[in-house]
Automatic annotation (TrEMBL):
<comment type="similarity">
    <text>Belongs to the GMC oxidoreductase family.</text>
</comment>
<dbReference type="Pfam" id="PF00732">
    <property type="entry name" value="GMC_oxred_N"/>
</dbReference>
<keyword id="KW-0732">Signal</keyword>
<dbReference type="InterPro" id="IPR036188">
    <property type="entry name" value="FAD/NAD-bd_sf"/>
</dbReference>
<dbReference type="InterPro" id="IPR012132">
    <property type="entry name" value="GMC_OxRdtase"/>
</dbReference>
<protein>
    <submittedName>
        <fullName>Pyranose dehydrogenase</fullName>
    </submittedName>
</protein>
<feature type="binding site">
    <location>
        <position position="245"/>
    </location>
    <ligand>
        <name>FAD</name>
    </ligand>
</feature>
<keyword id="KW-0285">Flavoprotein</keyword>
<keyword id="KW-0274">FAD</keyword>
<dbReference type="InterPro" id="IPR007867">
    <property type="entry name" value="GMC_OxRtase_C"/>
</dbReference>
<dbReference type="GO" id="GO:0016614">
    <property type="term" value="F:oxidoreductase activity, acting on CH-OH group of donors"/>
</dbReference>
<dbReference type="Pfam" id="PF05199">
    <property type="entry name" value="GMC_oxred_C"/>
</dbReference>
<dbReference type="InterPro" id="IPR000172">
    <property type="entry name" value="GMC_OxRdtase_N"/>
</dbReference>
<dbReference type="GO" id="GO:0050660">
    <property type="term" value="F:flavin adenine dinucleotide binding"/>
</dbReference>
<feature type="active site" description="Proton acceptor">
    <location>
        <position position="536"/>
    </location>
</feature>
<feature type="active site" description="Proton donor">
    <location>
        <position position="492"/>
    </location>
</feature>
<feature type="domain" description="Glucose-methanol-choline oxidoreductase N-terminal">
    <location>
        <begin position="287"/>
        <end position="301"/>
    </location>
</feature>
Length: 556
């Protein structure tokens, strides 16, 4: 019996110890770790398609081709953004096994130690602190040589990395002509842009070499790693694709709380609805958009809001879908006279075909890397007046307020039509410590109608001030209007099913990730992070999932 199947008729049954909703970044970690114990049976319900043989998901340089508006994306859009001149933004999420780890830009960035220590403080659970999570970083990460096997001495610090985990991470495997100039800047302007040999050490500040979830020149996702060939042959693990979950079913009560141990889903795209049952727990891992959407569809959320759309409230949990935080992002580009930039590959079919042949035959050449070889993690200067008006929103002194993503050209295809034959140098900027909070809500009782996604970007003054500072340090003019006209998402939403201390009157899950006031249901994905870390969010998601797997195993 194949373990990854497309129809219910190919499953041995519909009752398992654990039913995991979403075969994404976190969901596949849980599936892997729980089935290490041969006695635990696990079913993963994934709405999206198979990742097998999806070339754009395998070839790192093709990552921008996976979103938006493809079969691998949920193709969500935001509500019109009041503070972005009313613009509606694409809001991609992976609709494919591996979830967003199969379509993301692969940057492996942990954030700062301060971020995790703040999670521990906010949840009153020291288990979420930087030090206590180190074993879980190590279980996740497998640091591997870059595709070109170059000498990486001085480009990362091995002391902070694991070479034995499951998910491959590597440095860039193809040199870009700008690499030397970026490093030269760190020696010429060490005050503003100091070099940091390893920005994943917990002290992230400075400019460093990008580490990415790539192994041997190929993307490493939760599907290729945690559901790799050595794991999917486990007889106690089943994965059902094209299974879109509509809602959780109330199955009586246990331990004094309503229990939700059944899941209603589609058997095939647009197919009939079926139900799966968990003897032990349902694990909701549908991501920062999918998870609150499914909770609301199931009657778990703000009772007044649910009643208004015709859904009977079963558990009044007003924080569901609130508290969305995401990084606003702006692409800043400069004309260059070089033609050895990304535009050449994206513009010239002959060059692209030769590069693809090199990748296919040898896993070498420019396609082995994603869209950047360097990132910078920077605090606004101490002498700015920004923090006279409002408190410093960062998690602590080792935490950046903004990020530089440094690219040898524009990575998105198709290229904008108004750039002619020009070539570019790109420093994108992101606010890492946003104060703005958005929401996921619904305006329909149809579980398959898309939710309303409002990241509410730049609705708080500190966010636009920090973005201004970020672009100023990358040298740009006419800043506010430029920002409102160009900012979009960095695709890092979290917090929509946030974790809070046990007994708190706000939040959606306890520090052991059980849904408050509910039995038989936990949430394990990026939605539980109460605040977005000062880093891209996959590393934190993987590490939270690794610890969550241990918490679940311990309780059974
Ligand atoms: C375009 C893009 C680029 C990004 N770039 C980076 C980057 O470079 N570095 C980085 O660290 N982070 C990046 N991120 C963010 C990072 O990928 C996410 O934070 C992380 O993968 C989230 O993991 P998750 O487990 O919470 O959700 P996901 O990985 O999205 O998993 C959720 C899964 O649940 C499934 N699902 C949802 N609803 C249902 C339903 N109703 N029924 C059944 N299944 C359902 C989805 O199909 C999906 O497979 C990027 C994200 C995007 C979208």
């Amino acid at each position: 019996l194949a373990v990854i199947v497309e129809r219910v008729r190919d499953l041995p049954g519909l009752e398992y110890d654990f039913v995991i909703i979403g075969g994404g970044t976190a969901g596949n970690v849980i599936a892997n770790r729980l089935t290490e114990n041969a006695k635990h049976t696990v079913l993963v319900l994934e709405a999206g398609v198979s990742n097998a043989d999806v070339l754009n998901s395998m070839v790192p340089f093709f990552c921008p081709r996976l979103t938006p508006n493809t079969a691998f994306d949920w193709n969500y859009t935001t509500t019109p953004q009041d503070n972005l001149n009313g613009r509606v933004l694409a809001y991609p999420r992976g609709h494919i096994l591996g979830g967003s780890s199969s379509i993301n830009f692969m940057a492996y960035t942990r954030g700062s130690s301060d971020d995790y220590d703040r999670y521990a403080r906010l949840t009153r659970d020291a288990g979420w602190s930087w030090d206590r999570l180190q074993p879980y970083f190590r279980k996740n990460e497998r640091f591997t040589p870059p595709a070109d096997d170059h000498n990486t001495t001085g480009q990362f610090n091995p002391a902070f990395h694991s070479f034995r985990g499951i998910n491959s991470v590597s440095l860039a495997g193809f040199p870009q002509p700008i690499d030397g100039r970026v490093i030269q800047t760190t020696t010429e302007l060490p005050g503003e842009f100091p070099f940091n040999m390893d920005t994943n050490s917990g002290n992230q500040l400075g400019i460093g070499w990008t580490q990415s979830t790539i192994g041997g020149g190929v993307r490493s996702s939760s599907a290729t790693s945690y559901l790799g060939p050595q794991f999917v042959k486990r007889r106690n693990l089943h994965v059902l694709l094209h299974a879109q979950v509509a809602r959780l079913i109330h199955t009586g009560s246990s331990r004094g709380n309503p229990a939700f141990r059944e899941v209603e889903f589609t058997d095939g795209v647009g197919g009939p609805r079926r139900r799966a049952r968990a003897r032990k727990e349902v694990i909701l891992s549908a991501g920062s958009i999918g998870t609150p959407h499914i909770l609301l569809n199931s009657g778990i959320g703000d009772a007044t809001d649910l009643t208004r759309v015709g859904i009977r409230p079963l558990v009044h949990l007003p924080s569901v879908g609130r508290n969305l935080s995401d990084h606003p992002f702006v692409v800043n580009q400069w004309l260059v006279n070089s033609v050895d930039t990304f535009e050449t590959i994206n513009r010239n079919a002959t060059v692209a075909a030769a590069d693809l042949q090199l990748w296919t035959q040898e896993k070498m050449g420019p396609l082995v890397d994603g869209a950047f070889n360097h990132n910078g993690w920077i605090r606004v200067p101490r002498n700015t007046t920004i923090f006279n008006k409002f408190p410093d929103p960062s998690a602590g002194p080792h935490t950046a307020h903004f990020e530089f993503v440094i690219s040898n050209g524009l990575s998105h295809v198709p290229l904008p039509t108004n750039i002619g034959n020009n070539s570019f140098f790109v420093v994108s900027t992101a606010v890492l410590t946003p104060v703005s909070r958005g929401s996921i809500t619904i305006n329909s009782s149809d579980p398959f109608a898309p939710p309303l996604i409002n990241p509410n970007f730049l609705s708080s003054e500190p966010d636009i001030s920090i973005m201004r500072e970020a672009i100023r340090s990358a040298r740009h003019e006419e800043l506010n209007e430029f920002i409102r006209e160009n900012a979009s998402s960095f695709f890092h939403p979290v917090g929509t099913a946030g974790m809070s201390p046990r007994g708190a009157r706000y939040g959606v899950v306890d520090p052991d990730l059980r849904v408050k006031g509910v039995d038989g249901l936990r949430i394990v994905d990026a939605s539980v992070l109460p605040i977005v870390p000062a880093g891209h969010t996959q590393a934190a998601t993987y590490v939270f999932a690794e610890r969550a797997a241990d918490l679940i195993k311990k309780s059974w």
